[in-house]
Amino acid sequence: MRLELQKHAKTYSYQLISLETNSSDPDLLDIDVRLQRKSRRELVLSGYVDIKYDIQEGDDTEIEWVVYHSPTGSESDYKLLPFNIRRQSIYDYFNSFYKDFIMNGIANCSDLWVFDGKAPSPLEKKRYEINGCVLNDDHYPNHLGDGFYRIVGRIYGQVQCTIMLLIEVMRKF
């Protein structure tokens, strides 16, 4: 007997509100990824990540993602959620969450890291372009509460970088 998991429809829709990126040292890592309007209802990600130093497996480069929720969008209402990716080696992240949830969604709209097997080391010094990427929600939860979600990514190591995404979630009727 074969057990098959049924994919359930999302009970919500979402809208990207804002995206902010910054780097503590643009001479080592320059990042400029922005939301761009593709149509009246669709925003896409475009920009670049310019890595100007070798990122080696086993070095001190780490990444974490934390998620906050606010029912109203008011700064005083945001609460930390348990949905997060703990601070870890960038290569552990590449070989898990990035590979499983991000890589396929950006393969056709960027030249960011796409690999089979294990992430190659070192990460090639290069300016990576992102052109009109739509967030692929296939692996998002089926249910999310209404409100605003602030997702904050931080990279630590030779350079510190922050990526902050604001998303509004609305229940489908």
Descriptive overview:
This protein is mainly beta and 173 residues long. It has one domain: Ganglioside M2 Activator Protein, Chain: A, CATH 2.70.220. 10% of the residues lie in helices and 46% in strands. The chain contains 1 helix and 8 strands. Strands 1-8-7-4-5 form a 5-stranded antiparallel sheet, covered by helices on one side. A 3-stranded antiparallel sheet has the order 2-3-6, with no helix packed on it. Strand 7 (147-156) and strand 8 (161-171) form a beta hairpin. The longest helix has 17 residues, at 90-106. The model is unreliable at 1-5 (pLDDT under 50). InterPro entries: DUF1091. Pfam families: DUF1091.
- How many separate domains make up the residues? 1
User: Strand pairing plus helix content: what structural class?
Assistant: mainly beta
Multimeric status of the protein = single chain
Kindly state the percentage of residues in helix: under 10%
CATH architecture: Distorted Sandwich
Give the C-alpha Rg: 17 Å
- The H-and-E topology, N to C, reads as EEEEEHEEE
Report the principal-axis shape: globular
Task: Compute the number of helices.
Answer: 1
Beta-strand content: over 45%
Kindly, what is the distance between the CA atoms of the first and last residues, rounded to a whole number of angstroms? 36 Å
- CATH C-level label: Mainly Beta
CATH topology type = Ganglioside M2 Activator Protein, Chain: A
Number of strands: 8
Largest sheet descriptor = 5 strands, antiparallel
The strand order across the widest sheet is 1-8-7-4-5
Query: Average pLDDT across residues?
Result: 90
Low-confidence stretches: 1-5
